[in-house]
């Protein structure tokens, strides 16, 4: 009776608490209040523009002469009118105007203030914006993507609430506020606009990658993970919303056993005690031909140039070249609304060392979802930015076993393995969710296989 793999799976959930199975309404971080220099990842004002400074997110695209188009300017917060008749600035928004000093006579007429925000990776049909407006003298129109929303207001002391629930589009959206300044009534005729607003939409990517699972077929172990866009959209709709042609997985070998040498054409061979650690990750599977960059720690020599480029569709992680573009990928891997990654890596039995004290006889992989252009080149990497990636290890050989010293852990301190298997899977946390991971759930799954 021989023992098949003992799998020790330590999973750190990147999706926070309970959001793996449900579409997430997420903040729109590129939506800015007036007078704000930067937002945090959740779209909350982080830093403010100083008085008389240009607002980096609002432009005046049309103004009565002698004024001209240009960046809107944050109005002086003290003195007349911002420190007098206008509602006082706060930590989330400030008044903006044609000039920092508005205790002047601004020409009557219409000033058009324009801002933009980005809905890439969001489902625009689920977007909404709500907020408050202050104006001197009147907002005559609010235009979203060339469509009049019917919103008007005319008060500078108290806010007017507004809400937008339609008219959004994929990618960059344009929002314009038409500010009408009345006729001069005396020695002063200020004009200005103040906007506070927040927006949400379904993030198509967040929480869209399943935690990897395993299967064993004919003594060989496979790892699976499926990407399904959030909000009930298809892959094609999600790709359009994300500004890519289609999706794929990129799998890279990011650490190799110390017994391996990688030659200049990407071929892995077992040397006679030699050691060359790749400077850059190796695409898995290795493409034929091409020159790659490697770093030899013994000599300090780095070869050049780096391998050609990432051609995901020529090196898909399900090992079926060009299948996604030719439509020949099996339905188990590709449907209208899901794309599955599967890998059962193996190497020849002699590729792992079997000497006392050998450590790290394992390969470490990094697999992530990527967005691909029509030319087959990667446009976006969603591993570190959206948390749609995971690292994992394998010491599996072609016969389903491996020579491995079970008393040792690998170079990353991952729990030891007594036979060939895939193990040590860890999801890559998305930046905004890292703090949640401290209190989030994690599990240890132990599975035993016996003949």
- In which order are the strands of the major sheet placed? 7-6-5-8-13-10-11
Output mean pLDDT: 74
How many individual domains? Answer: 2
- Helix segment count? 4
Q: Biggest sheet, in brief?
A: 7 strands, antiparallel
Strand segment tally: 29
Shape: elongated
The amount of beta strand, in percent, is: 35-45%
Which consecutive residue ranges, at least 5 long each, have pLDDT under 50?
Answer: 1-22, 264-280, 286-329, 354-360, 402-418, 433-451
Distance between the termini: 7 Å
Structural class based on helices, strands and sheet pairing: mainly beta
State the share of residues found in helices, binned by percent.
Answer: under 10%
The Cα radius of gyration reads 29 Å
Can you characterise this structure?
The structure is a single chain. By secondary structure, the protein is mainly beta. It has two domains: 3-20 and 207-450, no CATH class; 24-203, Jelly Rolls (Sandwich). The chain has helices spanning 235-242, 323-326, 383-386, 434-439; strands at residues 3-12, 24-27, 36-39, 45-48, 54-62, 70-74, 96-97, 109-118, 122-136, 138-144, 147-148, 160-164, 172-181, 192-203, 213-217, 220-227, 246-255, 261-262, 268-269, 277-278, 282-283, 294-296, 301-302, 339-343, 363-372, 378-381, 389-394, 422-427, 442-450. The chain has a seven-stranded antiparallel beta sheet with strand order 7-6-5-8-13-10-11, with no helix packed on it. Strands 17, 21, 25, 26, 27 and 28 form a six-stranded antiparallel beta sheet that branches. Strands 2-14-9-12 form a four-stranded antiparallel beta sheet.
């Amino acid at each position: 009776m021989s023992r098949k793999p003992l799998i020790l799976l330590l999973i750190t959930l990147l999706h926070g608490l309970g959001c793996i199975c449900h579409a997430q309404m997420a903040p729109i971080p590129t939506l800015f209040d007036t007078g704000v220099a930067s937002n945090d990842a959740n779209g909350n004002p982080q830093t403010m523009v100083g008085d008389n400074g240009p607002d980096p997110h609002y432009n005046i695209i049309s103004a009565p002469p002698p004024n001209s188009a240009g960046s809107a300017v944050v109005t002086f917060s003290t003195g007349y009118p911002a420190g007098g008749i206008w509602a006082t600035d706060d930590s989330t928004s400030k008044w903006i105007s044609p000039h920092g000093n508005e205790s002047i006579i601004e020409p009557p007429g219409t000033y058009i203030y324009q801002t933009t925000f980005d809905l890439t990776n969001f489902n625009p049909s689920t977007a909404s914006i709500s907020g408050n407006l202050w104006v001197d003298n009147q907002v005559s129109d609010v235009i979203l993507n060339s469509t009049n929303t019917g919103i008007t207001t005319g008060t500078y002391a108290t806010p007017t609430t507004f809400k937008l629930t339609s008219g959004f589009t994929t990618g960059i959206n344009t929002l314009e506020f038409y500010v009408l300044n009345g006729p001069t009534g005396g020695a002063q005729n200020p004009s200005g606009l103040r906007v506070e607003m927040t927006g949400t939409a379904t993030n198509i990517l967040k929480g869209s990658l399943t935690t990897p699972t395993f299967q064993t077929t004919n003594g060989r172990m496979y790892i699976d993970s499926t990407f399904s866009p959030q909000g009930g959209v298809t892959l094609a709709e999600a790709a359009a919303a994300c500004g890519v042609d289609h999706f794929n997985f990129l799998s890279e070998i990011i650490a190799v056993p110390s017994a391996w040498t990688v030659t200049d054409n990407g071929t892995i061979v077992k040397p006679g005690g030699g050691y060359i650690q790749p400077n850059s990750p190796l695409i898995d599977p290795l493409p034929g031909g091409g020159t790659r960059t490697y770093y030899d720690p013994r000599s300090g020599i780095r070869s050049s140039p780096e391998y050609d480029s990432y051609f995901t569709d020529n090196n898909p992680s399900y090992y079926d070249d060009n299948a996604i573009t030719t439509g020949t990928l099996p339905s188990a891997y590709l449907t209208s609304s899901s794309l599955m990654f599967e890998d059962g890596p193996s190497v020849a039995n002699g590729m792992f060392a079997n000497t006392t004290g050998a450590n790290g006889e394992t390969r470490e992989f990094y697999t992530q979802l990527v967005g691909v252009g029509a030319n087959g080149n990667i446009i976006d990497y969603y591993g570190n930015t959206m948390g749609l990636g995971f690292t994992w290890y394998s010491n599996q050989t072609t016969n389903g076993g491996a020579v491995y010293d079970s008393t040792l852990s690998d170079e990353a301190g991952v729990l030891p393995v007594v036979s060939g298997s895939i193990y040590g899977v860890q999801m890559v946390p998305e930046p905004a969710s890292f703090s949640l991971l401290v209190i989030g759930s994690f599990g240890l799954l132990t599975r035993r296989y016996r003949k």
